[in-house]
Specification:
Layout lengths: L1 H15 L3 H34 L5 H11 L4 H12 L14 H25 L3 H9 L4 H11 L1 H16 L3 H7 L9 H11 L2 H32 L1
Helix pairs in contact: 1-11, 2-5, 2-8, 3-5, 4-5, 4-9, 5-8, 5-9, 6-7, 8-11, 10-11
Length: about 230
């Protein structure tokens, strides 16, 4: 028990003192997950709007695919990206394996189905009368679609927050494609796994506390936006 308390005390000291190694790992985690989330949102939100507001061939197939891919095992995604970026793979000439770019790519693949599926659900839940009213008042189809998307903004923000939560907790894919290289591709989750194996529980606990704090913040924001969406209804 004394050892656990001492480890927690040392972890809190690292956080309070803003340990340089701790900060670098945390900033790299935010950079990788943030970049992947922004990219997935830029690609996924238009896809979700297209699926929700238009009639297109294979629409049901794409929706089923996105919903299925929400549960993709991260290690499978990591393995696929690894094979693509390895020297013998089709993209090996780019030399991206064991870089932050490879990690962002893997997390993009994980985040995209979440963004598309949840944003689609938010957009289709908007009352169809809103779009019809916009068209009646002289809006173009594009303007009417933007009105619907704006009405679904709380659900869309909730989807983005949920995607970020998934990425921050992910370890399998980025460990495979990033290699957990100190100072280059070592993020919070991979560091926790490594330091725990080494017996360096102070740093692992410090990062764990930060991750739990982020999870609490993410869930709190998600709850706030979900409540606002319910109130508007």
């Amino acid at each position: 028990m004394a050892f656990i308390l001492e480890s927690f005390h040392s972890a809190l000291i690292l956080i309070v003192r803003l340990d340089a190694e701790l900060l670098n790992i945390m900033l790299l985690s935010l950079k990788v997950s943030g970049s992947a989330l922004i990219s997935a949102t830029i690609v996924g939100l238009p896809m979700a709007a297209l699926l929700a507001l238009t009639s297109m061939p294979l629409k049901g197939f794409f929706l089923n695919l996105m919903n299925t891919c929400m549960g993709l095992p991260p290690v499978v995604v990591g393995l696929f990206i690894y094979l693509m970026l390895s020297r013998s793979g089709p993209l090996g000439f780019m030399g991206l394996l064991y870089t932050s770019t490879a990690m962002i790519t893997a997390q993009f693949v994980l985040a995209l189905p979440i963004i598309v599926a949840l944003c689609h659900s938010a957009i289709v839940s908007v009352d169809p009368v809103i779009r019809q009213a916009a068209l009646t008042l002289g809006a173009t189809r594009s303007q009417a679609s933007l009105t619907v998307i704006a009405e679904a903004r709380y659900g869309i923000i909730s989807a983005i927050i949920a995607g970020f939560g998934r990425l921050m907790a992910e370890v399998g894919a980025i460990l495979i494609v990033g290699g957990n290289i100190a100072g280059y591709t070592r993020v919070m989750t991979t560091t926790i796994a490594l330091e725990a194996d080494k017996g360096n529980f102070e740093l692992a606990l410090a990062l764990g506390i930060i991750l739990l704090g982020m999870a609490l913040l993410i869930n709190s924001l998600l709850l706030i936006f979900q409540r606002r969406a319910i109130v508007r209804k």
